Amino acid sequence: MVHSIDQYVDVVGAPVVEQLRRLGERLKDIRVVHVNSTREGGGVAEILYWMVPLMNDLGLKASWEVIHGDEGFFGVTKSIHNGLQGYPVQLKKKDWDHYEEINLKNREHLLPVLEEADIVVIHDPQPAALLQMIPNRRGIWIWRAHIDVSRPHHQVWKSLKQYVQDYDASIFSLTSFAQILPHEQFIIAPSIDPLSEKNMPLNKRYVNEIAKAYNLDRSRPLIVQISRFDRFKDPLGVIEAYRITRKVIPIQLVLAGGGATDDPEGKEILDEVYKAAGDDPDIHVLLLPPDAHRQINALQRLADIVIQKSIREGFGLTVTEGLWKGKPVIGGDVGGIRLQVISHYTGYLVNSPEGAAHRIRYLLHHRAKMREMGKTAKEFARENFLLTRQIREYLTLYLYLLKDRGRSVFV
Amino acid sequence: MDMDTVPFYIKDCTLLIKMSGFSPAFDIRDLRERIAQCSPSVIYHHYFENLLAPTFDYPDFRNDFAVWVKRQLDDDVLAERLGMIEPYRFDSLEDLRTHTLDIIDERLSELHFITAVPPGHEFYFQEAITVVFETGHVMNNPGEMFKIMPQLTSSSIYYHFLEARRRTPDLTDDFSLWLENFGSEWEPLIRDLRSIDFIFYSLPELKEELLYIMQQYEVKE
Q: Of A197, A265, B29, B83, which residue is 20 to 30 A from A23 by alpha carbon distance?
């Protein structure tokens, strides 16, 4: 784990790091507590894993707390998650009661740290009910939504809104995700850590070892989708795109992802994927452990094209990872993928398996275009989607909320 | 004050985007209505601050309205007209707003029907919070400027070269204004800095251009 922001100088340049140090000086000893529902698996845990130590390095007193729940709780919160992304789900009163009950149980061990914090950042719906359970809170509370809430299932959002409307501010990943709430709503796109195991440079020997370990033929094109086995990531659509392309080009496909402790649906979807893949030796369905970051890094580097054919998406960090590795990305025309995949510049947005197959074929026949896209994508990622930008925006938000909240704040 | 040393305190700024509270626009009429009603800070953001917003995009138009009209509404005529607006040439944001509305009204009078975009492609009205802070760097003479310039962030360049035009009396940048303190020998550099056609540059490109110009004078020094 990286503990010092200075280690990023070689990637983003000294001026960017110095800027963060200046902002950090103005927030020295401010106590910031992040709360989410899992230590590993999924983009939120990954962000907090690097963000908390680096915020401490910048002078803040940052900490990361995790709420614990049972299977029933994570079943309910998965349904909430699906409902917020527009999937029709039915949640009964007893489900919401259980949701509150688990939040209340977690309140016991979190109470002292949450009461004393200057800023509390609650990530996603799982711990959102905590706010109402800490009446003696003294700090500013922010609800951070990482998922696409642009067109939520009405009843689910109506119920969740009761828990989030009293926050002091909320953060969404994209403007289109923001919902009407009685407080200020900020837009902060997520980012990736270029020095993490998932994104750091790898030596060729290791990359070759991974190719060998997974029986990948280096002489034929490889398409890779990295994501949880989740219906919104459309792994079955990717297999269909593969089959269409396969009629004319002997491509290989890797569908790789892990499970997260807060995602009970993964097994069911994975079974459907295995069934669709059948006994095709060129479809590699890999269920990876949560700490398989280097393997994922290698698989993305082995790819000719990275694909993320989601039908709903929060931001889509796997897209950023692919772009950072200089790969063109074929992405579903949804959510945060739209922000990152600019057709003809960094990849292509598609709306169907046929569209994905068409773009895979086009790119594989235009290698120079692929290289140009990769180069463009990497520089945009460096400028805008590395963790240094996200840290800067969080620090800016804290300064704004703790100061006089004017349009221009001089500190 | 000694003309050899006039301190220039280098500042930096960071931007935080927030929702304006206005509903999104799905067609040109929506766009016109919201632009007419929104706060000046929304106009400011979409014309000026958008350079600081994180993006993978490299649009050929530099304001968000023109980009949306081109990309989503596919109205090249209106996009070109909006795209050629040079926001720094207006005395006030109200003048800029009025001019924008005139252009949209003109286009509305030419169209036989109005097309709308599907959900997911609408225009969202944003504004931003700017936090401005001292970097701790001070330059006292042009020689120091040449040394410090490569160390400036894109946002510092934005603050002193672009945002400065909203707060300096002659609508110019902080660097050339400061160089005026050092006598006529710097007039060619001042002229070169003021003739940069910055409207088409991204911030990293603008920094490169500034460095390129200054390097020529550094050698002469």
A: A197
- Residues B192, B120, single domain; the answer is no
In this predicted structure, the answer to whether residue B214 has a pLDDT above a threshold of 50 is yes
- Cα A190 to chain center, whole Å? 7
Check CB contact of A352 with chain B, cutoff 8 Å. no
* B133/A400 CB distance under 8 A: no
| Containing structural domain, residue B204 | 8-12+133-220
- Number of separate domains in chain B: 2
Token couple for A369: 């275009």
Q: Taking CB atoms and an 8 Å cut-off, how many pairs form between chains A and B? A: 113
Q: What is the pLDDT of residue A190?
A: 86
Query: Are A106 and A70 contacting, i.e. CB atoms less than 8 angstroms apart?
Result: no
Global ipTM: 0.86
A409 is a domain residue = no
Best mutation target, B56, B71, B138, B207, to test chain A (most A CBs within 10 A): B56
Domain that holds residue A97: 5-191+387-402
Same domain membership, residue B183 and residue B110: no
Q: Model confidence over B73-90: pLDDT tens digits?
A: 999 999 999 999 999 889
For residues A302 and A371, state if they share a domain. yes
Q: Tell me whether residue A367 is exposed, middle or buried, using C-beta atoms within 10 angstroms of its C-beta: 0 to 12, 13 to 18, 19 or more.
A: exposed
CATH number where A259 lies: 3.40.50.2000
Instruction: Using pLDDT thresholds of 50, 70 and 90, give the confidence band for residue B159.
Output: very high
Give pLDDT tens digits for A389-400: 999 999 999 999
Q: Which of B124, B155, B178 is the last residue of a domain?
A: B124
In the chain, the amino acid numbered A51 is M
Identify whether residues A222 and A184 lie together within a single domain. Answer: no
Examine the pLDDT at A259 and tell me if it is beyond 80. Answer: no
Cβ atoms of B159 and B133 closer than 8 Å: no
Q: Smallest CA–CA separation between B185 and chain A, in Å?
A: 30
Question: What are the Cα distances from residue B118, in Å, to A82, A156, A343?
Answer: 22, 24, 18
Residue B7: CB atoms within 10 A of its CB come to 12
